[in-house]
Write a structure and sequence with these properties.
This protein is mainly alpha-helical and about 60 residues long. It has a domain at about 25-55. It is about 50% helix and about 5% strand. It has helices spanning about 25-35, 35-55; strands spanning about 15, 15-20. The longest helix is centred in the last third of the chain and has 22 residues, at about 35-55.
């Protein structure tokens, strides 16, 4: 007798959650994502890092 194999489209269950499911963000994370001041700061920092790489690559 062979053991049943799970279907490819069936979710794997571990304890009380679906394996492979992304965790939900916390309320603090959601507020930070909505805050325009934080987003502007992150935008400036990201652009500065990219510019640093670009300038470093041009001799």
């Amino acid at each position: 007798m062979t053991s049943p194999t799970p279907r490819d489209d069936a979710p794997l269950i571990a304890a009380d959650r679906v394996v492979g499911a992304a965790p939900l963000p916390t309320e603090k994370t959601l507020k930070a994502r909505r805050n325009l001041v934080i987003q502007a700061g992150r935008f400036v920092l990201l652009n500065a890092r990219i510019m640093k790489m670009v300038l470093k690559g041009h001799h």
